Task: structure prediction
Amino acid sequence: MAKQREEELKQRNLTVEEQRKQQAALEALQKQIANLKHETDEKQRQKLIELQQEAERLKREQEALNIPQEPEKKSSSVFVYIAIAIVVLAVILKEKNKEKPTPQPKVEEVTKQSPTAKPVEIPKKTEQGKIFTNSIGMEFVLIPAGSFQMGSNEYDDEKPVHNVKIDKEFYLGKYEVTQKQYQAIMGNNPSHFKGENHPVEQVSWNDAQEFIKKLNEKEGKGNKYRLPSEAEWEYAARANTSTKWSFGDNESDLKNYAWYGANSDSKTHEVGQKKPNGFGLFDMHGNVWEWTCSDYEKYSESNHIKCLRYRNVNKSLRGGSWNSFADYCRSSSRNYFSDRNHYDGFRLVLSLFFHDS
Result:
């Protein structure tokens, strides 16, 4: 019996040591992944995918190595005290129930928002959710004016959390721009993953600007179509919430709202197949990263609120893609690339009030 116990202790120590090694390896992988987050080279992007897969494998091995701890032995007197406490508590509760009548259940309206979500004050005159459809079938949802807490403490480029006021309502694309819509305006389809109703990808920021220019010319609306600013994008993505994702903080629910690394089968999918957020917008998490008109810089007083056009700096992308970790699909997550690739697309704003900066 003593020899058997000695073997068990050796095995336990071995497993604990293995867990420590696995944790160290996982932390090293996570550092490499963070360093490659903004890499544009295709070989480096492939390396990022392999590192992500290796990190997931290490996590699974860690779970397999977990050993339940032996329950702490307690004396019989402790159980006696617990039993007495339970009896006393039962008597107290019984007396309280005699004093108070049983409350009748209330029927309350069920909402989609998380209980931790902080509502944004919406002007009463705004017809939230109103849809506008343009000449090529692009649908736009009316987003109300309001204010929200922008950013997070997750990564340095998302700090600091700060209050932003969206002064005027605006229309935002209900879906990401599709390949069919892009083809109708540009006469070509550069996408890697083909499909009429899939989001267009392999478009640079300048490609998006050329699309906007031609669409405005076709519709005769001046400078009405444009990319959203980072502030507008995050405000619309959060849709009255302050949680990690528009539906809450539970990562396991992301599969219902997004095509991302865990469920995309390494490709884009048709727009509008997952659940919308509280403003009725689809694919704000995942499918393709979305270009904004804002510069990718540390948050300052207004650089993420205004559209600073024609500056020779990196532009911000939002929302995550079919290849992203869940973390990169959060409402506050930021990214950038300098050229075309099959992770990036866009959606448009149809602005009611717009002044170039």
